[in-house]
Amino acid sequence: DAMVIQNPRYQVTQFGKPVTLSCSQTLNHNVMYWYQQKSSQAPKLLFHYYDKDFNNEADTPDNFQSRRPNTSFCFLDIRSPGLGDAAMYLCATSRDRVGGARNYGYTFGSGTRLTVV
Amino acid sequence: KNEVEQSPQNLTAQEGEFITINCSYSVGISALHWLQQHPGGGIVSLFMLSSGKKKHGRLIATINIQEKHSSLHITASHPRDSAVYICAVGGGSEKLVFGKGTKLTVNP
Q1: In angstroms, rounded to a whole number, what is the distance separating the alpha carbons of residues B80 and B78?
Q2: Which of A31, A35, A87, B91 registers the highest number of CB atoms within 10 A of its CB?
Q3: What is the nearest CA distance from A64 to chain B, expressed in angstroms?
Q4: Radius of gyration of chain A from its Cα atoms, rounded to whole angstroms
Q5: Greater confidence, A19 or A41?
Q6: Closest alpha carbon within chain B to A49
Q7: Which of B14 and B45 is assigned the larger pLDDT?
Q8: Which of A89-98, A99-108, B3-12 has the lowest mean pLDDT?
Q9: Between β-strands B102-107 and B10-14, what pairing exists: parallel, antiparallel or unpaired?
Q10: Interface test with A, best of B43, B54, B84 (most A CBs within 10 A)
Q11: Would you tell me how many other CB atoms lie within 10 Å of the CB of residue A43?
């Protein structure tokens, strides 16, 4: 089945040690999103790629970076994780941008729960 | 910026009951999404609506564009329906605006 896969499901990293989270999709969707969700809060958009075009949210810390080497894969890099970065990280895809007369659904991955020790 | 309000915040029901979760938003949109998240889990997209009504199994979602309101109904609720249900709206941009979610607990 076409889907969005996130690896690993759970990640434990040390304070300050760089960590990379992975997302892959078999849907051939143009848009890939990374969201951060802290406990009991709504997901917060960090950034998204529209094809190869990177779009950063204004309030996303510089500590968070992303790479999209091809259509199928997108990575979230946290350069120096702090305790406050512990969260669920969700990847989502959409065939194209939402807007106008065309509405495209989102497909979410199962998430990676990051623990910082 | 769109404001998305969900009610109730928490809902406890007995197995078999009919459930309704409401969502209202402040600015016109092109699409509204209902999402499900189990404890500690990722998000599953249940519905995307731009008008009218959609049904999938025991789940029904309706939207009233004029009133800026949507409802998610669950018929014959079951303990496995226990989850957080999130309403999110997207309108003319790539960014989804999320409600705070409704935590549903269905007791056997």
Answers
A1: 5
A2: A35
A3: 18
A4: 14
A5: A19
A6: B94
A7: B14
A8: A99-108
A9: parallel
A10: B43
A11: 26
How many other β-carbons are positioned within 10 Å of the β-carbon of residue A14? Answer: 10
CB-based contact A43:A91 (threshold 8 Å): no
pLDDT tens across A29-84, in order? 999 999 999 988 889 999 999 999 999 999 999 999 999 999 999 999 999 999 99
Q: Which residue type, as a one-letter code, is found at position B81?
A: D
Cβ-defined contact of A42 to B86 (cutoff 8 Å):
yes
Distance (Å, rounded) from C-alpha A89 to C-alpha A41? Answer: 12
Question: Residue B34: which residues within 8 A CB-CB, separation 6 or more?
Answer: B23, B45, B46, B47, B49, B61, B70, B72, B85, B86, B87
Of A41, A94, A111, the CB nearest to B41: A111
Chain A residues with CB under 8 Å of B87 CB are: none
Chain A residues in contact with B90 (beta carbon < 8 A): 98-99, 103
Choose the closest CB to A99 out of B48, B93, B100. B93
- Mention every residue, 6+ apart, whose C-beta is less than 8 A from residue A40: none
Q: With the CA atoms of A65, A70, A71 and A76 taken in that order, what torsion angle do they form, in degrees rounded to the nearest 10?
A: -20
pLDDT at B92 over 60: no
Which residues in chain A touch residue B92, judged by CB atoms under 8 angstroms apart? 98-100
A103 pLDDT band, cuts 50/70/90, is low
Going by C-alpha positions, the residue among A46, A37, A110, A98 that lies closest to residue B100 is A37
**Residue owning tokens 């459930």:** B19
